[in-house]
Design a protein that fits this description.
about 20% strand; about 240 residues; two-stranded parallel sheet; alpha/beta
């Protein structure tokens, strides 16, 4: 197995971060890996917990900045500091149990460039509220209609990439927050890389939380901007494998 970099963006995840890192390390035992925590301008004790983890474990590193800029920005900053031939995106909130990472890494070795999780494939196990489920279905339909992206799910927080895929795609990515995953997968798909989907297990901790309608509005605007760049400006064209 090539060298692995796990990029773990964290915003106000002080209560989950240590467990997320320790469980991820347990799952990657025996492999050549690093875990890069990206503190995305947290206002709780995330930074302190991250520093303590870095002091305790030589395979854990930290990227930190004071202003919250969004998951896409965090992942790009973490990627710039990474050394792995394989890059793993993994959320620090532990909604996705880390034991699934090994399965994604093994699948990547079967000739694929990207492996992503999906809530919609047979075998997926997802626990979340009815409102969240309805929004997920609505957004999935919107993406398929507007962007012709041939994947069943863009939003799952576990994704695995060959390094060269991100080196090429990140140069075109403009979205920093809500529709980052959609833009990234749209560019990767346009460049002809092989994307494979695996069923995922997700247990949202905030099961009864209300939908953030402001975030949904921003996500819709960002998605329409991706559509405009792809189909009107042809901004993503001009490069291929």
């Amino acid at each position: 197995m090539p060298t692995i970099s796990v990029l773990m963006p964290a915003y106000n995840e002080g209560k989950n971060l240590e467990k997320a890192v320790r469980e991820t390390m347990k799952e990657l035992k025996g492999l050549d890996y690093e875990i890069i925590i990206i503190n995305d301008g947290s206002r709780d004790n995330t930074l302190q917990v991250a520093k303590e983890l870095c002091e305790s474990f030589r395979d854990v590193r930290l990227v930190s900045y004071s202003k919250n800029r969004g998951k896409g920005y965090a992942l790009k900053k973490g990627f710039e500091k990474s050394r792995g031939e394989i890059i793993v995106f993994f959320d620090a909130d532990l909604d996705i149990p880390p034991f699934q990472i090994r399965r994604f890494l093994k699948t990547l070795q079967n000739g694929y460039d990207v492996v992503i999780g999906s809530k919609y494939l047979p075998g997926a196990r997802v626990r979340y509220s009815k409102k969240r489920r309805l929004f997920s279905i609505w957004y999935r339909t919107l993406v398929k209609m507007l962007l012709k992206l041939d994947v069943s799910d863009t939003q799952v927080g576990l994704k695995v990439f060959r390094r060269e895929v991100l080196e090429k795609a990140f140069s075109k990515i403009l979205v920093k927050k809500y529709a980052f995953d959609v833009e990234l997968l749209t560019v990767i798909n346009m460049y002809g890389y092989k994307i494979y989907e695996l069923p995922i297990k997700i247990e949202h901790k905030s099961f009864d939380s209300s939908i953030d309608y402001r975030a949904i509005t921003r996500m819709f605007i960002d998605t329409m901007a991706i559509f405009y760049r792809k189909n009107i400006l042809h901004y993503y064209n001009g490069d291929n494998k």
